Amino acid sequence: MSALREATPADLDAIMAIEESEFTSDAWSSRMMAEETRSAHTRYLVAEEDGVVLGYAGLLCPRGAHEADVQTIAVLASARRRGLGRRLLRALLDEAVRRGAREVFLEVRADNPGAQTLYRSEGFEEIGVRPAYYQPDGVDALVMRAAPSRASEETA
Fold first, then answer.
1. Which of 70, 85, 93, 141 is 20 to 30 A away from residue 151, measured at CA?
2. What's the pTM?
3. Distance CA 60, CA 63 (A)
């Protein structure tokens, strides 16, 4: 069984390998990811099994802020359909509540129905569209919002 844990600088290569394999046209740079994972305003987690990082997720939420943003969730294609994305998302929602957030936002590609289904099942609702948000593909982003306590209640 996989375990969730805090991402460390030693995980950067594994995170970037997943980032580049799952977000082929719009992957973050290694520098951007390194800055994100060490910021006091973020929390990055990895899903690991037998020493292998299978997925990661990140939340932007300064302590005491009323809003949080799911920055990213990615799971290797070979490790999907095992609940890792859901576990990572729920851990981020729990962290948002701990940090005082009342709402959690995220953007998801309009051409990613699997992720949209996951987010809706965890209490997220679509509140808008950002046209051509994902570049260079020009794919729209669906903006979604959830109240973390409500999302937890709905899935309990």
1. 141
2. 0.90
3. 10
